[in-house]
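User: Hi! I'm working on a homework problem where we have to compare a predicted structure to a textbook description. Could you give me the structure for the chain below?
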Amino acid sequence: MKNNRISSFQKIDALHAFPNQIPPSNTQSNQHDNFLFLVTKPNENNSVINFKDLKSSIVNDTVAITGDQVIRGKKIFEDDCTFNGKLFTKEIVDTTQEGDISGYNFIGEQIYFNKVGIGDKFSGGEVDPQASLEVDGGIYSEGNFTSQGSGIFSGSVSSESLTTNNQANIGGTLTSSGDIFCGGNLSIDGDLYLSGILKSNQHEGFIEFSSGHLRIAADDSNYLNINSGIDVVISGENKFSISNSGNVSINTDNNSGSLNISGDAYIQELYVTGEDGSYERVVPQKYDEPVFFSEKINAGLISYDIDLPKTFGSIPSIQTTLLNNSAEPFINYYISDVTENSFKLNLENLITGTGYFLQVSASTPKIMSVHETKMQSFSTGIHEGNVSYDIYFPEQFNKKPVVNLTLQLKQSRKPNDFGQQGDFAFEDPYQYFYSESNEWKRVSATIEQRTSGSAGDKEVQGNFLYICTGEDFWSKISVSGADFNESEDTDLDDFHIGEDYVYIYSNEANEWKEAAIYTWPYENIPTPMKYTLSNIDQQKFTLNFQEQLKSQYDVHVIAAR
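Assistant: Happy to help. Predicted structure tokens:
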């Protein structure tokens, strides 16, 4: 039955979120399709409000201070909000671009922040961080900065100390007044400013930075130290130093000279400046000292092996005089096969007498001055085909010198030596070709250093044919346009050796080019050549033969003034 008295109304202990949770009144009907909430002031005014309207006006806009609660819908905090306990969230985005966390985007996974993005590009919430911490801009920390994951910083990073147990990529400047620890890779596109020690947590090595000082160390006893100079310390001892004046010291603290060495030094070749300022090779005394001796030539032979009293460091220059104390006939001769410790004496005729002696002077090629007397010893080559040759001194004398020389026969190619059609070879200063006339012919050539190739490679550039003699050395031959029948190039390799010409096709000029090749005077059995000297002046002299030279010789000269 209806009850109109307020004092008779049923009382409930809680106002529930859903009407069907309100207990029914003591009536016969248990169905309440429409609940009303009575608002009354006794003896003055009574009003009612639908329950769902009451809920939306009070409960929906209210957050409980205590107890568990599920909050639905968007919420806007206009004022400060403080959480004294943990805040569990999936994502926080600041869209106002104002305040202390302007432009920050925090994305959490598994109830913690797995990725944190800071900077303008994250302010819209549409871009996700690509690392545990990604900063679009610089980062400054007054205290320690520690990251267990990876970090990406497009700007500079400044911190009292920095620790990361994973990878850190820094696009700007990294500045730290304290320690920096990185458990993974540290990639910096900008500058890295350090005033302490850069260490590895797996090794003893470190790099130490300070004002005007750098130390790179494998450990405390082995390091490179750069201060006002450079020191290399090995096993606690200074082994190598460069002073601030540029002086180098090896195994010594003495730095009085440009180079200071304590201990043995193994040097293959050493050059020093001579009196005229040019560099001269220093040769050990036991190798460099000249030798002078006389050897008896016994009868019965036409060729003799002559041993030098010592072994030279390089092939010496040999000067000889054949003497006879018994007024026996003069015999023409030449020498050959000169080595560091011997040479061969070859005579024109068989020796029959017993009064012959060979006087020998052997010395390394050099220029020296003793008591204002200048002496030059040297060797130079002469080739077949002429009767006179101008021989130039390495340096000019002040006055006409006295000249003494000895001829050394060289083993050289002859036109009738064995060969096959198409063969070619370089022997300074000629390029040899085996011609269609079944003999060797040659053309003058120079040697030039170019791009490496294989021996026998051929190239044409301009009016020159280049033939590789091995690695980056090529013989260079002058060529000119040719009227060549291409059908003669039977092997189709754009190269042909004729009877009197060598032909090669130039892709550069789109034409065949040629070089004339010649035979030369020769002798199958060399004979000693009679010679005289003439036209001696401060620069050169002339070596004259009775007839055209048919073999190649090295001329060993001693000239003094």
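For your comparison, note the following. The radius of gyration is 51 Å. The chain is about 0% helix and 45% strand. Good luck with the assignment!
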